[in-house]
Amino acid sequence: MKTSDLFVKCLENEGIEYIFGVPGEENADFLMSLHESKKIKFILTRHEQGAAFMAESYGKLTGKLSCCLSTLGPGATNLLTGVADANMDHSPILVITGQGSSDRLHKESHQILDVCNMFKSVTKWTTSIRNPKTIPEIVRKAVRLATLEKPGAVHIELPEDISKLDVNAKPLKSFPYRRSIAEDDIIYKAFKLMIEAKSPILIAGNGAIRKRSSRQLRDFCERTNIPVVTTFMGKGAVDCNSEYYLSTVGLGAIDFGDIAIKDSDLVITLGYDMVEYHPKLWNRNSKSKIIHIDFEAAEIDEHYIPQVEVVGDLAHSLSVLNKIIDTEGIKPYDLQNVKKLRNELKVDNEKYKDDKQKGLIKPQKFLYDLR
User: Fold this and answer.
1) What is the mean pLDDT of residues 332-337?
2) Which residue, 72, 73, 128, 340, is the most exposed by fewest CB within 10 angstroms?
3) Which fold does the domain 184-350 belong to in CATH?
């Protein structure tokens, strides 16, 4: 079997369905092998950056891994912005780049760059294939790292001479894995903080849009009526038309959601990343009590010091919280300010709905019609 054939079979074995990219001389063998695949569809793009963003969007919307593909040198550099964005937004993608023959990588040569080193700072892992027999392990490791929490980008480089070699190997058997879960005692501490609060609020971030997490979050909100604001990356985690949803918060000027956070005495963050909305913007005086619920421990920051950290699978943590609430109940919260803000938000959104101005369009009018 040719090395490039083995590579494609390993990708099929991992359930890859789409590869977005641009052909080139150095990835020609891989593309010819891909052409024979009945399980993976190649999507030709106009530019490599578009391929990276398409793979990122696919991962973000489906939670599934896809690939973006380029040739060496300028093809690889064109991928960089989309790959960096995918990695920072925790979207699972596998980046595959061609490379010149391995016998000229040690010297100055046409379009030869140290692509692995270039991708090192914007991926969870990067490697170059030097021995065809290692491909099953490399692909298995890459897929595992790309999809483990928190998801991100991984990169595999395939030199053109390596892709032509014959190899006697087969894909490794894929097997499921379980995420670690938080201790029940820690989750109960979070519940105790919640029942002591008078006006809590929940910030749903990137991690909250995972399918199981989103479902448990909605159940949690229905039980507690704790108001929710989402980051830009957390939009869709809850129904934006529900009574407990307030608005989106982010890097812009003070908005309705920011006011609600400022007025709260407990902030529950769920799947929240500081890159989305830095705590200095919503916890300027560092006075808010914080419950951090996420797949990973909190980032160290002077404006973000949680009283309780619930670290583990989000869906499981919320499921346990929901069971505790069903058993012990939860008090009604004072939501008058939140209801007032929600009404003000509705008025603001509808302020220009009937605007007939020609030429320049009010942003509120555009968004109202779009919705």
Assistant:
1) 81
2) 340
3) Rossmann fold (3.40.50)
For the chain, the domains span 3-163, 184-350
Question: Following DSSP, what letter does each residue of 241-281 receive, concatenated?
Answer: TSTTEEEE--SSS--HHHHHHHH-SEEEEES--TTTS-HHH
- Tokens 């879960």 sit on residue: 181
The CA angle 86-310-177, to the nearest 5 degrees, is 60
Q: Does the pLDDT of residue 107 top 70, yes or no? A: no
- In one-letter notation, the amino acid at residue 255 is D
Instruction: Please say whether the beta carbons of 99 and 117 come within 8 A.
Output: no
pTM equals 0.87
pLDDT for 159 equals 94
Per DSSP bridges, beta strands 93-99 and 153-159 are parallel
What is the mean predicted confidence (pLDDT) over 282-287? 79
Say if residue 328 is exposed, middle or buried (CB neighbours under 10 Å; 0-12, 13-18, 19+). exposed
200-204 and 308-311 as β-strands: parallel, antiparallel, unpaired? unpaired
CB neighbour list of residue 220: distance below 8 Å, 6 or more residues apart: 226, 318, 321, 322, 325
